Amino acid sequence: MRVVAVPVKSLSRAKTRLAPKLSALERGALTLAMLEDVLDATEEVPGWETWIVSPDEVALEVAARRGVRAIAETKSSLANAIRQVEVLAKDVEADALTILPGDLPLVTPEALHDAFRTLGAVVLARSGDGNGTSLLLRRPPRAIPARFGPDSFHRHMELAAERGLPVSVIERTELAFDLDTPGDILTLLSNGRRGRTREVCLQMDLPQRLRNIA
Question: Choosing a second label site near 49 at 20 to 30 A (CA), which of 70, 90, 117, 198?
């Protein structure tokens, strides 16, 4: 079995950097739209099972409705959510485990195919700022520890080097772009790619509301 796990924060705590411009309900709606876009992509990739791990009941309901495995997060942190998934992956004897954040609204099945077909015990996609990790694929699931957070890309590279494991790096905008700031919303809208996130942004009239954001 090969698993792609998508961690999702509690909707009440999601996307706080958008708080000056969006209400808590709007941020929650945006988070769910991004999750749906990510699921649209993962479900198009054959041979991989999608898991959602979250403390949020609404996110878990989305997972159940989409027919993917819903895992109730037992401790509220990304590190704990990943450890929880790693234990379950071991229980089902998974051969590979990918951690894919739920806030990548430009992700496509083609980008995931590219990552999943890439050889190496560790496959990384670098986040847009060049320092974070927007995809971590490990074969086997604990080939290296997961160390998400500031400068995680370089930490993952160092951990693989310490263990003598081959690493492949995927450079694709679809995997690098996450949505955290008002400026990111404008970047998404200028991209032109159709998706649920774009639809929600337009429904909330964000192009007009954010027109003064550089």
Answer: 198
